[in-house]
Amino acid sequence: MLFTKVKKTRMKKTLTYYLVVLFSLLTTTTAVNAEAVKNADSEKLNSIVAEMLDKMDRQAYLNVIDLITQATQYDMEAVGDEALPKLLAIKSAIEGTPNYRMLFHGKLLTGHFVVKNMAWEKEANANDLQFSFADEKGKPCVIKIATSAEVKKTTLRINNDDASDDDDSELESRMAAVSSISKILNALFEDVTELIFQVPAKTTIDVERDGLQLMHTSIDVDLDKLPEDLSEGMYLDAKMAFLKDDQTNFFELNLTNTGYKAGDGINFDLAMTNAGDSLLSIKLNAPGTFKGTDMRAYLTEDGGIDLGFESVNLDIDILGKAQLKGVVDNISTFYTNLMILDNTTEEESFKEVLSELNKGMDLSLFYDKSTTPAATFELVGEHDEERNSWDTEAVIRFASDNSTCTLSEFFTEENFSDVIEGMMTMVAEVKDVVAKAREKVKEIALGIKGNNELPKQAKDWYMLDGRRTNDAAKGLKIVRMGDGSVRKTMTK
User: Fold this and answer.
1) pLDDT for the residue 163
2) Total structural domains in the chain?
C-alpha cells in the first residue's frame, strides 16, 4: 500500500510538471512568434525604405548644392543694395496707414549680377534675376530666377487681436492646434494685418554649369482660380528636376494640384522619381472647407468644434513594394473625442470613446500592392494608477498572428538601422559638399584656382572665412599688384 501511494504521488507530480511545461512552451512560443512577426515586418519595411534611399541619384542634387553654396560665399552687399530701395519704398508707402500691410512679389529683386573682386556686382538691368560666376575649374555657372509678367494680387488677412481675456483663453485651450497657426503668423508679422502677394502665373529657377542645365524648377499657378482672399484657396503645380550631363531628367520631384480651396478642402500630391522609376508617392486629401487662420471660425454655436474637413485620406507608396493607406472619417468628431479622452478617468466612458475613435480610423500597411493588409493601426488605452487617468497609445496589429506592438517598439534604431544609416549618409554628403564648396571659393580668392576677375590696378582687400571684409584687422590681406600678380599676407 505504501508503495502504491508513493507511486500515485509521483504520477501526480509528473503530470503537474508536464502541464506546467506545456503551458510555458505554449505561452513562450506565442511570444516568440509575435516577436518574430514584428521583426520580420520591420526588417521588410526597413529594407524597402533603405532601397528607396539608395536609388536616389544624390550626386545630381549635390552638384546643385555645390554651385549654390559657392554663389553664396561671395559678398552680397550689392545685391542687398539693389533690393533695399524697393523695400524702403514699400515701407514708406504703407507706414502710418490704419491697415498696415506687407507686400510680397517676384519683381522685388531683378537684374544680372556677376562676380568681381570676390563680390557680386550688378552688370545690367533686366526683368529676371541672374547670378553668373566661374566655378573652381573656371567653368561658367549661372543661377536664373524668372517670373511671368502675368500676376494677380491676393491678400491674406491676419487676426492680431489680443487673446488674453477669459473667453479667448478658454478658446485657446480648446483649439490648441488651430490657434498655433494664428500664433505663428502673429509672431512672424507683428502689427501686420494683411499680407499682399503679387502671385505670378509661372516661376522658374534654373542652375547651369558650362552651358548644361543641372536643375530646372517650375511653379505654375492657375490665376483664374486664385481668389482675392488667399484664405479661400490656392492650387499650384510644381516640378523640380535634377539633370544628368546628357540633359535627361534623372531625379525629379513633382507636386500636382496641391493646395486648398474653400468648399473643396486640402489636396497634396507628391511624386518622386529617379530615371523615370517611381520612388515615392504621397497623396493626402481632406475634402471639406478650409476656414482660414482665425480660430474663432472653427467653433460651433453649441460650444463644439468644426474643423471643416469631412475626412482625411492618406495614400503612400514606396517603390511599389510598400503602401500605407488610410482614412479618418468625420475629423471634427475624431478631434473632439481625442480631447475628451485627455479628461476622462472613468474606465467605461474611456473605452466607449476609444471604441468610437477606432471605428472612425482605418489605417493599414500593405506589401506589393496587395488588397490584404499586412498590418493595421489602432489606438489602445492604458490606466495610470498613480494619476488615476487613462493614456492613449497607437499600436500595430499584425495580420499573420493578430499580435500587437507599440510604435516605439516597432520603429527602433535597431529595427530600422539601414534607413537611419542611409539618412545619416545623405546628411553627411550634403555637409561635405557645402564644406568643400566654401574651400573652393577660398582657393579662388587666393588665386590658386579659377578665373574670377580681379582689378588690374593695385588694390587691397581682405578675406575672412571665404568672404570679403573691409575690416583690416581680420582675415587674409589680398594685394593685387599693378602687373597683375597676387600677393597674400596675413594681417595681425
Assistant:
1) 44
2) 2
